[in-house]
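In the design runs reported in the main text, the only information available to the sequence generator was the tokenized backbone. The following block is the verbatim input for one such run; it is reproduced so that readers can re-run the procedure and compare outputs position by position.
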């Protein structure tokens, strides 16, 4: 398993906190804070695209 470097948690008001991490193999990881052992892994570009879409409001219907 790759050694993941986790960023500080991102917490939205009244919601779960998420953590984003990267590894030396070029992968990006996202997890609920405190549950990092159950993370999703994809490319950094895919994670960047996901974050940009969320910021653009394209995932509000999922919340």
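Verbatim output:
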């Amino acid at each position: 398993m790759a050694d993941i470097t986790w960023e500080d948690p991102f917490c939205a008001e009244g919601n779960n906190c998420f953590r984003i991490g990267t590894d030396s193999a070029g992968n990006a990881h996202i997890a609920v804070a405190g549950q990092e052992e159950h993370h999703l892994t994809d490319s950094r570009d895919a994670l960047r695209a996901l974050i940009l879409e969320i910021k653009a409001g394209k995932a509000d219907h999922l919340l």
